[in-house]
Design brief:
Elements lengths: L7 H22 L3 H4 L7 E7 L8 H7 L9 H11 L4 E4 L2 E2 L5 E2 L20 H18 L4 E5 L6 H10 L7 E3 L5 H11 L3 E3 L5 H10 L5 E4 L1 H4 L1 H13 L3 E4 L5 H13 L6 E4 L15 E3 L2 E3 L12 H6 L5
Parallel strand pairs: 1-10, 2-5, 5-6, 6-7, 7-8, 8-9
Antiparallel strand pairs: 1-12, 3-4, 11-12
Helix pairs in contact: 4-5, 6-7, 8-10
Length: 323
């Protein structure tokens, strides 16, 4: 319960300290952190709307983010149109089922008995039909120009990942995101599917990533900057560049982490696209002194010192965690 992925809570703590020290250094020198990393390659970062629809699949989380509940696959048409109208050119969704109980299909994260699809992690025909209907609705609402990314997490074995990717091949998805702690198996999936693969968000450090790069296991390596730390993340990105692999940040967090990931994306040459969660609590912007500036589906880089924003501890205290 204290280890979300290999590396554990100690690695996350080291990364947090590292990120804090870079913020302090930037503020002392009066420069943004990306200057400490060599300066920005770009000042506008293309974004994708992450977990698009995920928080609207349940009454509780939909109420929390102030959005209507998704009750049928047809509701995804309106969701796709909403993303397009907001100026985004890409969205990422999880796998949604609208049978007797609308839900997110995630047996790979099963923590108790009775979870649909756990522990066998197979891609049954009914699931493939549901995913086809999901992509049809999103494409209809968002339009042909919208990049659609599908996050499958740890929810299949290689056989199941391949079945899903082959079933959805006609939709020309931006990428298929999946997680495996076996680089050879991931490389096999990429070779057999011949479709774009993104992975590695749960890895720590250059040594874990190296094995995947050597296998050419993915098209895009996803790096978690809050977990790895900005300095180590930059090293991982440099290693990926040597293997001709693009990178993208793992960023489903709050605004401070978004700003940290933005400095990372701005300072590396092999950047692909940046993740951001749009559906969130209505007071999210109040938690920081300067929320990210988003314009036409892109994050506009700040030139303020450090990370360019600070936590408002008074607002944090006003919203204590609920037991």
């Amino acid at each position: 319960m204290t280890r979300q992925a290999p590396g554990g809570i100690n690695s996350q703590a080291i990364a947090a300290i590292e990120n804090a020290l870079f913020d302090i250094k930037g503020k002392v020198l009066g420069v943004p952190v990306y200057t400490l990393l060599g300066g920005p390659v770009r000042t506008e970062l293309p974004l994708y709307w992450s977990h698009c629809g995920t928080y609207r699949m349940r009454e509780g989380t939909a109420k929390m983010v102030g959005k209507p509940v998704l009750r049928s696959v047809d509701d995804l048409i309106g969701l796709g149109d909403e993303v397009s109208s907001a100026g985004f050119n890409a969205l990422k969704c999880n796998m949604y089922l609208f049978d007797e109980t609308p839900r997110v299909h995630s047996p790979g994260f099963a923590r108790s008995a009775g979870i649909h699809g756990a522990p066998e992690l197979n891609a049954e025909p009914a699931l493939l039909r549901s995913l086809t209907a999901q992509m049809t609705a999103l494409r209809q609402g968002a339009g042909d120009q919208m990049g659609i990314l599908l996050d499958m997490n740890f929810n299949f074995k290689p056989e199941g990942y391949l079945q899903v990717m082959r079933a959805l091949a006609p939709f020309d998805l931006f990428w298929y995101e999946l997680d495996l702690f076996n680089p050879e198996a991931l490389a096999y999936i990429r070779q057999q599917a011949n479709l774009p693969v993104a992975s590695c968000e749960s890895l720590y450090g250059i040594r874990e990533f190296r094995r995947y790069f050597e296998q050419q296991a993915m098209d895009v390596a996803i790096i978690d900057v809050p977990w790895n730390g900005i300095w180590q993340s930059s090293k991982i990105a440099a290693m990926a560049d040597a293997y001709e692999i693009n990178v993208a940040p793992h960023n489903f967090y709050g605004h401070l982490c978004t700003m940290i990931s933005a400095h990372f994306c701005a300072s590396i040459p092999n950047f692909r696209i940046m993740e951001i969660d749009i559906d969130d609590v209505p007071w999210k912007d109040e938690l920081v002194t300067h929320p990210p500036e988003i314009r036409d589906g892109k994050l506009i880089l700040s030139d303020r010192p450090g990370w360019g924003t600070d936590i408002d501890e008074t607002v944090v205290a006003a919203h204590p965690p609920k037991r």
